[in-house]
Amino acid sequence: MSATKPIKVYLQNDKPLIWSSTDAVKIREEWRIVGCLIGCLPRLPRQNNHLGLPLQLSKEEVTLLLEKGAILLLNDATGLKEPSEKERGEFIEYREASYQSQVDLFRAERKKEIYQNMANIIEGKKAKAQKEEKKDSSEATEPSEKEEDFSIDVDKVPIPPIPRKYSLVQIFTESPYRLDQEIPAEWSHPESKQEQLRYHVYRDLWNQGFFLSNGSKFGGDFLVYPGDPSRYHSHYIVICIPHNKPMSALDIVRMGRLGSNTDLYKEIPLGANGAGWGVSFLHCLDSTQRGLLPYCEASPH
């Protein structure tokens, strides 16, 4: 793992968020943390098939990263400082420069379109002139104007600028006016037994080199990938179950059907009164696969 400075994660409404694109890539490449993009894309705001920043981390991911010292969890309720007059002026200048560059690009694109459609534009002007001649005269006559009379000097074509209300405005993903003293956020996860159960399973599988993501969409606790989820399909659905919870044969069959050619993991706390934690794997094979239910027990942490 890289020994660079910790990544800033802001806790907003109990949701840990990463706003920096550089940090979002870094935390995935160096720490195998997937997270979940929840923001809309500026160029495609009216869809939810592809999302953008911020990157929301799960509670298990935050707890693991805090243990590893990889992140700084900060309170997003920290007040923002008032920008100075100089900063206000720089912001206005930047906004105006952005608008003017968009106007220049728009006019260059319009000129390009006129060049590409020059023949059609000239034919349209000639047809319009002939139609007006026929309307003014009772006898049809050949147009007196030559083709060069309809030529267009593109550089002299007046192209109005983009209305300001239709111009693109850059939205900052991280405020440049934060206070120098940022307040660390309190983090107490995991608290309940079920949260401890989920976290110990997550940490154990992460320590084995897997990528993990939320599995609630598929009826489990986690999805486990052998590599980056952008390149691999998940190999396992993880369901976390306490060791003292009764399981019937029907539950095993249900898990096998749910997994459908995947393995299901079962977390077991070891030691008297839950003093120590260990992970035990119960593989539920689909009926199309050969084999029984192999059981493997791990040593306590």
TrEMBL record:
Keyword Nuclease: yes
SUPFAM superfamilies: tRNA-intron endonuclease catalytic domain-like (SSF53032)
Designated name of the protein: tRNA-splicing endonuclease subunit Sen34
Signal sequence range: none
Record family assignment: Belongs to the tRNA-intron endonuclease family.
Cited PANTHER family: TRNA-SPLICING ENDONUCLEASE SUBUNIT SEN34, TRNA-SPLICING ENDONUCLEASE SUBUNIT SEN34-RELATED
Keyword Nuclease: yes
Composition-biased stretches (Basic and acidic residues): 125-138
Function: Constitutes one of the two catalytic subunit of the tRNA-splicing endonuclease complex, a complex responsible for identification and cleavage of the splice sites in pre-tRNA. It cleaves pre-tRNA at the 5'- and 3'-splice sites to release the intron. The products are an intron and two tRNA half-molecules bearing 2',3'-cyclic phosphate and 5'-OH termini. There are no conserved sequences at the splice sites, but the intron is invariably located at the same site in the gene, placing the splice sites an invariant distance from the constant structural features of the tRNA body.
Start and end residues of each TSEN34 N-terminal domain: 7-75
Enzyme class label: lyase
MF terms (GO), sorted A to Z: nucleic acid binding; tRNA-intron lyase activity
Cellular component aspect of the GO annotation: tRNA-intron endonuclease complex
Recorded coiled-coil stretches: none
Enzyme Commission number(s): 4.6.1.16
A Pfam family that the UniProt record links to this protein: TSEN34_N
Keywords: Endonuclease, Hydrolase, Lyase, Nuclease, tRNA processing
InterPro entries: tRNA_endonuc-like_dom_sf, tRNA_intron_Endo_cat-like_sf, tRNA_intron_Endonuc_cat-like, TSEN34, TSEN34_N
